[in-house]
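Protein in question reproduced for absentees:

***
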Amino acid sequence: MKHLSAWLRGNWAIPTFAAVLIITSFAIERLANVTLVSPLWLGSFTLADLAMLTAAILTSYGIVVKAVRALTSRVISIDLLVSIAAIGAALIGNYWEAAAVTLLFTIGHALEAATLDKTRSALTELVATAPDTAIVMRNGEQVKVHATDVHRGENVLVKNGAKVPVDGIVISGNAPIDEASITGESIPVEKSADDQVYAGTISRGGLLTVEATGVGADTTLAQIIHRVEEAQDAKAPAQTFIDRFSRWYTPAVIALALVTGLVTQDIVLALTLLVIACPGALVISIPVAIVAGIGQAARNGILIKGGEYLETSAKISVVALDKTGTLTEGRPQLTDIITLEPSLTENDVLRWAAAAEAGSEHPLAQPVLTAAGPASPDRVPENVKPIPGKGICSEVSGTRVLMGTPALLAEHGIPTVQAEHALAGLAPNKTAMIVAIDDTAIGIIAVADRIREDAPAMVESLHKAGIHDVVMLTGDTPAVAETVAAQTGIDQVHASLLPEDKLDAIAALQREGGTVAMVGDGVNDAPALATANIGIAMGAAGSAVAIETADIALISDNLLKLPDAILLAKRTVSVIRQNVAISVITVALLVAGVFAGGVTMSLGMLVHEMSVLIVILNAMRLLAKGSVGLRE
């Protein structure tokens, strides 16, 4: 009973009943048509006519209501064109045309609604992955609660086959976690103590105890769903243009039909013009493609902020990348310790370096502290002053400690000749920092970061996707940057950049006529991301800032998602152009056919709705697996 009630309220009930009435009308006309008593203005009115007129009224009622509502808002809609044509056809006794036009138009609306529901299927899938319940440890017992009732800091058990109900940090246990709903990656990721897990992912074995850090609306999954909802509703520039065009086009069609009727004295011709000139396919052509494209991207761990950014991404010709953490693993390791003072050992140099770096948040601080191990600083710096692009200046137990480039030491009047000679002997892929205490350079610390295995494939894929230049923007030395560029296929290198220099580099690329995408972490590179035409955040899972602020957020840390995102944008815009061309050509041919003769009102509406269906099916291709080269 519930299913029947839902179906009666759905989009297909009225078209079904109307189709039955039309078939009944034809059957009555063939078998035993009966002339009914009718007002004089209706002329000869039969039982078949009654069935056909009833079908027309049934299907046109909703259309007329929408047209009137639009008029009250001072909008001349497509529904008004169909309403005028159907009412006009009925008044001149052409009940079949009135019924056929409104039935086909209603079917078209039902198809559009069904298609938009289908294109939003990725969002539906995301919502479906949201966990309902959680098992929480309270007072030493396992308590089953709704996922939204979990509190931050509580310990949650995740058993084999269960959905992870919260964002959190693994406290104990081991388990492979299927993160496809978040990152689009199909291969489960092994999780153990201190690893991050996300709500909506699924345990494929083992048992995890997770400390909740994000619950309910604060989870990564909830943020992704919110972003996709906003993105699918946001209008692209092309769609906004079509909406403005329709506001002028529709009244122009009414005026053309009126003039045609007055000049030719042919009411049927005028009404036919109203029907076949409907820009229905044109209006649906863009939103259905945008929704499908954004939905397919979300399904594969690529969040696109909206149609505007999708269109801009299709024009990207230059991609700018940071080196550390993007082209490289972002986990540099200590490779060399060189002493410049005979009285000091390598361990002494390392301890002074570790003491200076103990208060630094720079990525190169960690490998120094890790290498120090048991020799980690027993002294904490009283003051740490980072010098962007040059190094740091620390004060440790009253001793000034400098770590950085020769330029940093030169600023403080410390000789660098011996240090620079030692630097020349290091491999070009290593980042070296001179260590100086007070006024003396005592040694050199060198670290190196491994190039990510998929970096060369990513650069190659970007070139295949039509990107002219892949540019590296890094604060590292030219030697290190050039080495990484040579191994990955980077086209341009801009090294030794301060944060503000990255902005200038992007602005320069834009002045050269390029549409520039900047790839960063969404936080440290925020100014550069904002300056670029498209800001892309890598590895955005768990970063609310990246998900909310980036134009495109790649949820996983898979570099190959970057060319995938650009290919998808280009494919979607291509579909939009195809749809617009189909729509315009169809209307032009129908108008020509009307004036040439042979195109009736019902035939015109049939062809029109076929063009709507073609446009819809064309957009649906974006949802097919592998249709846009996306990698699982």
